[in-house]
Design goal:
It is elongated, with a radius of gyration of 20 Å. The chain has a five-stranded antiparallel beta sheet with strand order 1-2-8-3-6. Strands 5-4-7 form a three-stranded antiparallel beta sheet, with no helix packed on it. The protein is built from four helices and eight strands. Strand 4 and strand 5 form a beta hairpin. Helix content is 26%, strand content 29%.
Length: 188
């Protein structure tokens, strides 16, 4: 499917949703669920056009009743909860992309006792910034004698090509990370 046809289909879907939202109770669960779908459509429009507000600029995908409402003059913010649907036990780390922009990708990573394989080192093209939200972890950088012990609230900026590995993640419960990957800055 070509880009333009996809945007037209997304606009039609978005318009149907906004038409129904104009009739919904603003604080109701169905309203919030439909807002999540609208935010996902806007996110896909961002990937296709480079503009999260594409539908608002073109007027496509916004129903006439909603187009005149103050709430629809700005793009809907994407919303969620970083601790929803966090599994207590996983066979492998779970990586979920929460947002993607022209210069960055934001991921939630859930670990339940996982670690980097023996002898494996991450050596990434782009810089990364991580913050530990829950649980605990040991992060080892090449050349350091011992891993950095991370607790909730601890963050680390990892420059491009800084070799590192996850020595361990806490087995007492899920370790939740938030990672921001810089898609523009590459090592010189």
């Amino acid at each position: 499917m070509d880009r333009e046809r996809l945007l037209v289909a997304m606009g039609a879907c978005r318009e149907s949703i906004t038409r129904e939202q104009a009739r919904m109770e603003v604080c109701g669960p169905l309203y919030y669920s439909s807002s999540t779908v609208v935010a996902a459509i806007d996110g896909l429009a961002l990937m296709l056009t480079g503009r999260r507000d594409y539908f608002h600029l073109t007027g496509h995908g916004v129903h006439e009743e909603a187009r005149n409402a103050v709430a629809w003059r700005k793009p809907m913010p994407a919303a969620g909860n970083l601790f929803m649907n966090v599994s207590e036990r996983l066979a492998e780390e779970e990586i979920t992309t929460l947002a993607e922009f022209p210069g960055a990708r934001i991921e939630r990573i859930v670990s339940t006792g996982q670690a980097s394989p023996p002898g494996f080192w991450y050596d990434q093209e782009q810089a990364e910034w991580v913050v530990l939200l829950s649980g605990s972890a040991g992060l080892l950088f090449e050349g350091e004698a011992a891993p950095r012990i991370l607790h909730p609230g601890d963050y680390v900026e990892i420059p491009a090509h800084a070799r590192h590995r996850v020595e361990w993640t806490g087995a007492e419960g899920p370790t939740v990370w938030l990672a921001v990957h810089d898609k523009d800055i590459k090592a010189q």
